[in-house]
Design brief:
201 residues; Rossmann fold; seven-stranded mixed beta sheet; 8 helices; globular
Length: 201
């Protein structure tokens, strides 16, 4: 995408101080892997495409095909088996990823960057907080999808994220929002599997 095309199509985004032409090009040149289902996936896809990301690839968690090249990955599934499988696959690629899921009356978003190592990861959080996951209503799913898309776009734009290695928990009933730091744990199933330890599902 040339500079004039960027200016014309995404003029409202280009004038934002945090984006500019270079930032818009980063989005336009990026490839985002998407995995999930329902309203969350639809909302995430819409938000990413609206920002001008030139390519999105949908991951089928049931497939055993090798992962394609990507700039970042976004996982918005409420299926725990898919979440864990994708976490294990993506962390081996050592890249940027965002996971989002319904939690209580609201939702949670986790930014993971395994480029410097493998933990902490989603399963470090999950094994210590097993009740922090739910399915969520369609409106909540849409909110978490668009919020997670915003976070992955920030990751691509800045190369970093304020949510890296943190879970952002938002309760819609109580209006409460806070960050929960995620630390490596020896109980992490993904880490244990990599070390050859048998893990009970």
């Amino acid at each position: 995408m040339t500079a004039p095309e960027v200016n014309e199509r995404f003029s409202r985004q280009v004038i934002l101080p945090g984006v500019g032409i270079e930032g818009q090009k980063k989005w336009g040149d990026s490839t985002i892997l998407l995995a999930g289902e329902g309203p969350a996936l639809e909302a995430a896809q819409t938000a990413i495409q609206s920002a001008g990301s030139c390519k999105t690839i949908f991951l089928n968690p049931e497939s055993n095909d090798p992962l394609p090249s990507f700039s970042a990955a976004l996982v918005v599934t409420h299926n725990p088996e898919w979440r864990r499988k994708l976490n294990r696959l993506l962390r081996l690629r050592q890249g940027k990823m965002v996971f989002a899921w319904a939690s209580g009356s609201g939702f949670s978003v986790f930014g993971e960057d395994s480029s410097q190592g493998h933990c902490p990861c989603l399963e470090c959080f999950e094994v210590m907080n097993p009740k922090a996951f739910s399915t969520g209503t369609p409106p909540v799913q849409r909110l978490l999808g668009s919020t997670a898309a915003s976070e992955i776009l920030q990751f691509i734009l800045k190369g970093d994220s304020p949510l890296k290695n943190q879970v952002w928990v938002t309760s819609l009933d109580g209006g409460i929002s806070f960050h929960h730091p995620v630390r490596p744990t020896y109980k992490c199933p993904a880490r244990l599997l990599e070390e050859g330890v048998k893990v009970t599902p």
